[in-house]
Amino acid sequence: MGARDYDIIIVGGGCAGLAAAIYTSRARLRTLLIEKEVGVGGQIVTTNHVENYPGFPEGITGYDLTQAMRRQAVKYGMETLAAEVSGLVPGEFTKVLRTTAGEHTARAVIIASGAAHQHLGVPGERELAGKGVSYCATCDGPFFREQRVAVVGGGDAAVTEAGFLTHFATKVYLIHRRDQLRAQQINQERVFADPCIEVIWDTLVTAIEGDEEVKALHLHHVKTHEESVLEVAGVFVSIGFRPNSGFLRGVLKLDPNGHIITNEVMETDVPGIFAAGDIRLNSGRQAITAAGDGATAAIMAERYVSALRASRPATLYI
Questions:
Q1: Catalytic one of 7, 140, 278, 293
Q2: Which CATH architecture has domain 5-116+241-317?
Q3: Is 140 a catalytic residue?
Q4: Is 207 helix (H, G, I), strand (E, B) or coil?
Q5: Would residue 5 show up in a list of annotated catalytic residues for this protein?
Q6: Distance from C-alpha of 306 to C-alpha of 296, rounded to nearest angstrom
Q7: Residues 274-287: pLDDT tens digits?
Q8: Is 136 designated active site?
Q9: Domain at 119-237: CATH code
């Protein structure tokens, strides 16, 4: 086996990819994890406090959680490569990953490259990420007990997040750039019936104010052009996701938004290629569900590689 040949290549270093790497490395499969950033960890590394991951009753930072997972995978032999994947060629016995660091081959591939949150792109958003700016109410909602928060968006995800936040916040503002929501009618009815939620129509967030934490939002009314300031302790941006799957178009079956379509055991429509975590259609978008996806994908990938070895001459694998 050459220096760039592996049993398993995992694309993506978040919870899904790292969990998969722990399982495949422990199975004594030569495993390479490719992450475009120098360090691994995925989006969760920007989360200052994760308190819903099992086993950490006092909570843990996203960085510490993923670094512990990385050390565990490295302990069993995982190799890492900082590179961006530009293409995947799905051969019958060997898959070729084209990257900015050259081509690498594997018997099986696990895609765990995640989905990026759509950002507002306004001043203060990046600087206050994890300090009141959040993209996940399930993850961060409990930090805003008895405080006022805002949700930006008008689809099903946004209104669902707004409803969830009413369990903690005293007031939830739902800020939408249009004069009607895009969410399903039943979800809209729940929003309008909840006295804790106030919808702010035809409005854009133009800046997020705060030093060490969010203090207020600067708003612009798109029809009257009125400028205003809304004092809140947190803002949840829920305007969609962008799956990191551009290099897979024409290779795997994707939904119209670019999510990979899998079955319940993380298999894609191409034998030997699996998907796990947020890039997968109908993902739970939680650290624990991503890790579960990764473990399942790894187990199935191990079975695939074992079956492949049994059908090919042993000299190909030494």
A1: 140
A2: 3-Layer(bba) Sandwich (3.50)
A3: yes
A4: strand
A5: no
A6: 16
A7: 999 999 999 888 89
A8: yes
A9: 3.50.50.60
